[in-house]
Amino acid sequence: MHTISLKSNSPDMIIPLLKNALDREKRILVETLRITREKINKLADNFGVDIDKLMNGEVEHTEANDMQLIELEGEIEISRHIEAELKELESVEICKKVIYLSCT
Fold this sequence. Notes:
This protein is 64% helix and 0% strand. By secondary structure, it is mainly α. It has a single domain (11-90), classed as Methane Monooxygenase Hydroxylase, Chain G, domain 1 (Up-down Bundle). Helix 1 packs antiparallel against helix 3. The longest helix is centred in the N-terminal third of the chain and has 37 residues, at 11-47.
């Protein structure tokens, strides 16, 4: 895990703001993922396609179904991207580091 440092004159104000922003982004991603998964399931049902077989290349693209399958594959890729972003956000830790300097 890597560390990212931020400097602030008022960390007691900034830390809660950062935590709230991360929490809000997580909620947005969770809701977006829910909507995307619903769309994937609806498309798969409408097209009568097994998602695993589609992603393994076992579903034949024909002239009649090509655009629908491309749309479904695109939604699946979007959901994977959202899942990856959510995983990264969930791994973020915000720590307060206090440095004391003494002058002599």
